[in-house]
Amino acid sequence: MPKLNRIFDQLALNKHSQTKTSFNQPLHLFRGLAIIAIVGAHAWSFMIFWTGSLDSIGLKVLFSITEMLFHGSTLYFALISGMLFSMVLAKRSWKQFYTNKLLHVILPYIAVSVFYFSFYGGWQSEMPQNEFFISLLLGKASIHLWYIPVLMVLYLLTPLLWQLVSNPQYKWLTLTIMLIPLVISRSPFPDFIKLQTFFYFAGAYTTGLFFGCHFKRILDLINLHIKSLLLLLVVLSVAIVASYFFDFYYTGWFSVRQSLIYLQKLIITGVVLVGLYLATEKLKSAKTPKQISFLSLVTVLGDMAFSVYFLHVFFMGWIIYVAQNWLITDRNTFEIGLYGLASLVGSILASVLLTLIFQKTFSNSSRKLIGA
């Protein structure tokens, strides 16, 4: 383990030894934590439902707790994208913004979609070209890719949303958009991409834009009310867990659970960013980044967030495949929980390893292939 820590320390040091003034370390670290949460949203739910169902009270408890912790973590990506634009990308031209997204988000998305579509036998269908185009448009080449088409729409909306957020005369319209996810929820499984989903994530993205515009001021405000926010976070988390034991059905475009999750993820974002900001301020006096091995690991994950997002489901599928025969014959909460943890850690490490191989093999072009 110490040797592994040293490896991540060196990777983080090499990547950010010449940190630019535009680089925001707390936000970058938060992106590393966010990808862990997104992988966590799949680790236990896939392990449960790809091997059976919620056929015991123990599994229901495990599912409700892991869903409370990780479900909706894609909101972090939307919030981070908004903050990153306000704090860094808004200083660049629109041509630079869209060129960057084309090369480093859309191109790797197409590449990994080709891979997943081929891996799952998509080219064997009657009209493979049409099916591939639809899967690309709707993010259906693999179960987790639905967010990228949503993100593409957010990129297209950025000039309009930025105009609203950056002009005080539109503050009430901006606030309305930020609050939309409380009354319009994302669409549920299996149809992740519906019109309501775009409203939901546009609200989160706009909140990120606003947060980025007033980053330090909002962090100070959160720090001032940290105890009250932590108490509210506990209440929301308990309510989310409880929702899995009662009939919280969708009513049209509205879900109480998704509203609770939106509020919970907003508070988590603010509280964690405050913690990371304070931690990085203290670390400025540290002599060497080797004193912060965990933060070095998270920094590396922040660098590789998109590639881990693109790749982790492939490795997670193989981990579940290995455990499937055992779990189908003898399913219990402890084993599912343990295998879910193995799926989380194993899929992240395998994704990081493959990313390193791509970076070594293709150099700067790897970002256009797998996102890092």
TrEMBL record:
Task: Tell me what topology the record assigns in the membrane.
Answer: Multi-pass membrane protein
Segments passing through the bilayer: 29-50, 70-90, 102-123, 143-165, 172-189, 195-216, 228-250, 262-280, 292-321, 336-358
Looking up PANTHER family in the UniProt record yields: O-ACETYLTRANSFERASE WECH (PTHR40074:SF2)
Please give the superkingdom of this protein's source.
Bacteria
List the GO molecular function terms.
acyltransferase activity
Where it sits in the cell: the answer is:
Cell membrane
Could you tell me what this protein is called?
Answer: Acyltransferase
Domain (Acyltransferase) ranges: 27-354
- For whether the record's keyword set contains Cell division, the answer is no
**Organism for this UniProt entry:** Shewanella electrodiphila
Cited InterPro entries: Acyl_transf_3_dom (IPR002656)
Arranged from A to Z, the UniProt key words for this protein are: Acyltransferase, Cell membrane, Membrane, Transferase, Transmembrane, Transmembrane helix
UniProt record similarity statement? Belongs to the acyltransferase 3 family.
